[in-house]
Amino acid sequence: MRLRPRGFTLVELAVVLTIVVLLLGSLMYTLSAQTEQRNYEDTRRRLEQAREALLSFAIVNGRLPCPARSANTTTPATVAGDEVRNAAMQCSGDSGAGAVEDYYGGTSGAVTLGLVPARTIGITQVDPAGFAVDAWGNRLRYAVAKTKTNCVPATAPATLLDPHFVSSTNMKNNGVACQPNDLLICKSGTGITASTCGVTAPAGANQLMTSSLVVAIVFSPGKNGALTPGVTQIDELANLNGDPVFVFHPRTDSTFGNGEFDDQMTWITVGELYGRLIAAGVLP
Amino acid sequence: MTARHPQQGVALLAMLALIAMGTAWFTVSRLQAMTGDYTIANRNHNAAVLARAKQALIGHVAMQAAKQGETDPGRLPCPEAAGSAGSGLEGATASTCTFPAVGRLPWRTVGIEKLLDAAGEPLWYVVASGWALGANLVINSNCTSDATMACATGLLTVDGVKDTVALIIAPGPAMSVAASTGCTARNQSRSAPAPTMDARDYVECYSTATSAFVTAAASTSFNDQVLKITAAELLPAIEAAIADRIQHERAPLIKSAYSGGAWSSTSVLPFAAVFADPTFVPTALAPASNFRGVAGTFQGLPPLTYAFTASPGSASACSPTPCTPTPCTTGSDAFCDPGFVAWTGGTLAGTAGGTLNAGTSTCTSAGTPTTLTCTIYSWDLFNSNASVTLTLSATASNVGMALRQINATVPIGGLDTTFNPPYGYTMTAGASTINANGSATLVLSARVAAGTGIPLGVSAVCGLLSQLLGLTCYRRTISVPMALLSDHALVDPSNTTHNWFARNRWPQLSYYAVAQGLSPSPPSGTRCCGTACVPANANPCLMVGYHPDSGKQWGLWLLGGAKIGTQARPPTLIGDLLEGANADLDTTFTLQGGAALLPNKTFNDRIAVVGSN
């Protein structure tokens, strides 16, 4: 008797295929999660590098740089990745109609303000235009303190000079008793104003870092940074609205009350800045 | 046909066994290497966060020390308050601590992120007893391991060396600590809620009794990664902050101490004291003379003596005015010297009312502190015992060898207090001067009341004219307390804005220099220096190398910094305190060490400029 040629039945094949798909699926999932994690850590590293580069710039130049902006300016003449700082040592330059001041980021027309001045501080991981980017290709943001407090008037000139942190001569004149007075980091965007973390009781409960400590903030808008933040993304919007009040908390997804939040942030405290400048002999 | 050998498959089995063993060996060795990589990565991560925390902490101390109103400059923050972990106050420092203070790093006070170690634990922090609030602090450049100072006894002993002010610790995962040398057995448990958090569940192998810590121990007893901050590492940052405070808070006050207001508008800086061992112990009789200025001395120790327990500008100054400050007790403090600035005499001139006979009206001084007693002889045409408005020019010695302020709220005995009530006198604006010998002449306008003179009949002491006219001569006495020249706020021991300087014994590290032209006795006779003189450079200014305005300085306040190399502390020679061009007793100073000094780190002086053109 001739044996009937035996193959796999359709049922068997289906079972095998299902198993293969399941295996592949779980593998792919792990892979994408790993990629995500790697990007997250890579961004963290880039922020740390930017922080270090800013401090190194400060040691060499005796001051912090001003932020860059997405469009070149003619006065002062800047190209992509340059700090925008005018002759009066203020973080200001022309942008379309007239001069626009830029310490805290935000936008002016179609121009994005408050970018990390990659060219000025020597960061090489940049996008084709020349701006420092995170692992997802979104541009890193930078804000620097404009105002100061707790200064003791100097001998000569007897008046305190502004701006403090972006001018080496003023910083030397005003002395190391001066603390910043504007950049605030809040725990949540709920209830914040353009200058406070809100008045939710107890006082200061929503404040992560007081304004007298933070001289500069560097942050990545995260993976979703390329998207226009939706109206529900209260916390992310607070970081891009151009005021000195920022929000930072651990990552949350879109089911979170204040919307998805994936910004990564680091900052320079006034003690770190003065400590480095004193150690380098730049101050006092 | 040959018979086929039966296949037994031994070779295949052997090969399989070989491959299995090889794979197993490879896997195990890889695993081991991976664990090693993992450990190294963890240690690197911990090292990075510890270093960041250390830098931020040192910077925070410097910034805090530079703040006006900080009475313990150089102090470190206490650890996070027990019980605030997990609460809204997490990361904030406790206001005082019990020593040795072991707790979580107060990251929010320092201003950094909540840094975590590789095991996901927040960093821990230990601060020594001489360096945070909760103890009486004395912090200055001599607070290194070999100094015999209060601050040095408050250091932590780490690995047997007593040189550490603080430790930052990555606690690692909880472990079962085995008993070993210096380590007590403990099964660490970290599930307890924050208020009961026990430091021994995080930090291993330390002794609170001896403030002794380690950076390494048997691996079965220890898994912390420890970074220490030594006094020597922290002090340069503190010195910078103190120099900044001298420049911003003290220098402007010294510059204006003897000019403006009642003083002449021409700037003048006091003489220096002769340099000698500046060591002093507060609350004990010490060489107070060390801080007495000397006429003709243009550099040395700063003039810091005082005479009263509280002076205007201090919250404990006497009140309500008019009132006289209480003199300090000689020997109660290194700087107390109530007899140093003393009245030496005075002249009187009548300006209105009865006629004052300047020839016979004289002043004498007596007591410690001195009181100037002036006797006034006057007469008037109507024999009416009329009031006399007069100008008194009183001279006090050693004012230019100390720091004093005119205190026009003290009562002068014998005056008509309805004149500029309630005092009876006013200081004449711009008329008081520091003389070339360092004495000061104070000019005030006062009035003695009508009817208060003692009639002497017709007397020669009122002059010939009064005798010829047969008019009655009247005698009055006024007494001027020494407190008319009270202590300057900078030397006033009760002035809480400024007394941190002496309390932390920074005078022991101070050196003061004044340009001869700005001293009480300028060579050209006119107080000026450099291009401000006519003709220019009649008196030279001080030079400060590397200063953008070098060659224009009136006076300098130098801080010697911690001892370097063979320098002796306490310093008996200027070279024990200062380095390089600053120690050669000429008028040229420098902000930085020269080519030979910088690379060898043999220069740590700091300079604050007291006035410049």
What is the number of strand segments of chain B?
26
How widely separated are the two ends of chain B?
Answer: 122 Å
Main β-sheet of chain A, in a few words? Answer: 3 strands, antiparallel
SSE class of chain B:
alpha+beta
Radius of gyration of chain B: 36 Å
Structure overview:
The complex is a heterodimer of chains A (284) and B (613). Chain A has 5 helices and 12 strands. Helix content of chain A is 28%, strand content 15%. Chain A has helices at residues 10-61, 118-121, 168-174, 234-240, 270-279; strands at residues 92-94, 99-101, 106-108, 111-113, 141-144, 148-149, 179-180, 184-186, 207-209, 214-220, 245-247, 264-269. Chain A has a 3-stranded antiparallel beta sheet. In chain A, strands 9-8-11 form a 3-stranded mixed beta sheet. A two-stranded antiparallel ribbon of chain A has the order 1-2. Chain A has 284 residues and is α+β, with helices and mostly antiparallel strands.
SSE arrangement:
The complex is a heterodimer of chains A (284) and B (613).
Chain A: H1 10-61, E1 92-94, E2 99-101, E3 106-108, E4 111-113, H2 118-121, E5 141-144, E6 148-149, H3 168-174, E7 179-180, E8 184-186, E9 207-209, E10 214-220, H4 234-240, E11 245-247, E12 264-269, H5 270-279
Parallel strand pairs in A: 8-11
Antiparallel strand pairs in A: 1-2, 3-4, 5-10, 6-7, 8-9, 10-12
Chain B: H1 10-66, E1 101-104, H2 107-110, E2 124-127, H3 150-153, E3 156-158, E4 161-170, E5 176-177, E6 186-187, E7 212-213, E8 225-230, H4 231-255, E9 299-300, E10 342-353, E11 355-356, E12 362-366, E13 371-379, E14 388-397, E15 404-406, E16 425-427, E17 433-434, E18 440-448, E19 454-455, H5 464-468, E20 474-481, E21 485-487, H6 500-503, E22 510-514, E23 543-545, E24 553-559, E25 588-590, E26 606-612
Parallel strand pairs in B: 3-7, 23-25
Antiparallel strand pairs in B: 1-2, 2-4, 3-4, 4-8, 5-6, 9-22, 10-14, 11-13, 12-13, 13-20, 14-18, 15-21, 16-18, 17-18, 19-20, 22-24, 24-26
Helix pairs in contact in B: 1-4
